Amino acid sequence: MAATLSDTSCGSVRKRHVGGCKTDAKPADTTNEKENCKETEKRLRPLHAGTYWLTRIVLLRSVAFIYFVAFSVAYSQNKQLIGNHGLLPCKSYLNSVKRYSFGWESQLLETGFLAIFLCPVWTLSQVPLRCPTSLICIWTFRWLIVRIMLGAGLIKIRGDKCWRDLTCMDYHYETQPVPNPMSYYMHHSPWWFHRFETLSNHLIELIFPFFTFLGRRMCMVNGAVQILFQVVLIVSGNLSFLNWLTIVPSLACFDDASLGFLFHSGSQARKAVYECQSDKTAGRNTKPTKGMMIRQVVNFSLGLLIGFLSIPVVMNLLSSRQVMNTSFDPLRIVNTYGAFGSITKERTEVIFQGTQSLDPKDPDAMWEEYQFLCKPGDIYRRPCLISPYHYRLDWLMWFAAFQTYEQNEWIIHIAGRLLSNDTTVLSLLEHNPFQGRETPRWVRGEHFRYKFSQPGSTSAAQGKWWLRKRIGAYFPPVDLEGLRGYFQSRNWPHPHIPQNRS
Q1: d(C-alpha 342, C-alpha 294), whole Å
Q2: Dihedrals phi, psi of 388, to nearest 5 degrees
Q3: CA 281 to CA 482: how far, in whole Å?
Q4: Contact 148, 246 (CB under 8 A)
């Protein structure tokens, strides 16, 4: 590693090599060597702490990536789910979206809102000298990660008893919405490791967030811990882009000096930041313009707005009746968050089955199973790995499995679409057993209890990832004619009945 250079050392003759500059340069080479030495100094000299030019670049790029994923999910699935001919048409969906919106959607909206104030105006420069990164904006992101973690930690402590007796992780990997392959192995970890996981979860969500307010180094410690925590969650489950999104505000815990390693020495952004810091050190500050002063007023107003809207959020965190994933303002600018306040101890799944038999009660009727894209179904199928992408219907099926079909009427809507081999719904499934064949006459929902197979067991040796046991019927066999009144009462378009089925 080259020695640190002083501001006047590049043009002098030295007795040693410093950063690649020759010490025995001839007078004729002095000019070139001086320029080369200055360039080397710019590349190797570390950035100073306390500025956030590179932090802004990393934050905005991260937000852009998450929004790209979110819009990709919406583009490929919204038509089938909330389109005019979807399972829950948009008109009905919008009436309930405020009540049933997922927590990560509110978090995405808030993160995107805060990112607006980071963006430079009227320039595409990565380091616009007349638009410095506002410390207020940085603190709004820090405040976001503090609220996310405290909300999640407090709802756990106040919720399920297993979080207090440190046993929740005995169940989490097996019963989470959409497990991945690593979930299988994490579930079979020793009991003491699960206790360690649960205790670590409490420390990360309830203690480390306060490090944010204890100076630069402690704030960076919290940022690093939170990012590592989210990476572990990404590796061990398919929780949509939620964990990726939660990494974003954690990045605000780092300044240019700590994020410089992400930009190579020849990076234009790094060079620009170095020049800016050098000018500031030398007292050559950019004279404030009218636009800069207006932006300062806007940022100050943002801070006041976030502070004011945070009052009910803080009161909710302090309340023994804390609610999670809720907003107290109509625009969802500042929200309260939380996840897994209670842990399901058993995994149940709804399995759709269809038959071409005339009589669904016939004991010899052959019922064939539909397979979803990612959720457990076929016990021989390896759990999927899709994060940060997200299959919304698979996630909703997880909720439906520990409720009733009366509470999730769209389940019957799916059954009706399957009876007509509707391509809109089938595009959300992996396997249609009636592909290229006559449509099923009957479709039913069966309720099963699922458990991971034991590594090294006979079942595992046979290739079984899951073991399952039938609980009973989730909904009885239905046919298209029998669903006509059900569909009409809910203003759902009734699927066409094939002529050979009339």
Answers
A1: 47
A2: -90, 0
A3: 79
A4: yes
Q: Can you tell me the distance from the alpha carbon of 154 to that of 260, in angstroms, rounded to the nearest whole number? A: 35
Q: Which residues, at least 6 apart from 430, have a Cβ–Cβ distance to it below 8 Å?
A: 371, 372, 373
- Alpha carbons within 13 angstroms on the beta-carbon side of residue 114 total 31
Query: DSSP string covering 97-140, please?
Result: HHHH--HHHHHHHHHHHHHHTTS-SS---SS-TTSPPPHHHHHH
CA-atom Rg of the chain in angstroms: 29
DSSP state of 379: T
pLDDT at position 2 is 39
User: What mean pLDDT comes out for the span 305-328?
Assistant: 93
What is the SS3 assignment for 144? Answer: helix
User: Looking up tokens 């939380």, which residue turns up?
Assistant: 338
Hey, what are 490's tokens? Answer: 């809910």
Q: Which two tokens stand for residue 152?
A: 């999640």
Question: Which residues 6+ apart lie within 8 Å of 300 measured at CB?
Answer: 136
> What SS3 string covers 395-450?
HHHHHHHCCCHHHCCHHHHHHHHHHCCCHHHHCCEEECCCCCCCCCCEEEEEEEEE
Q: Which of 25-29, 86-90, 320-324 has the lowest mean pLDDT?
A: 25-29
pLDDT tens for residues 201-239? 999 999 999 999 999 999 999 999 999 999 999 999 999
> CA angle at residue 394 from 389 to 399, to 5 degrees?
120
Q: Roughly what angle, to the nearest 10 degrees, separates helices 191-206 and 216-236?
A: 140
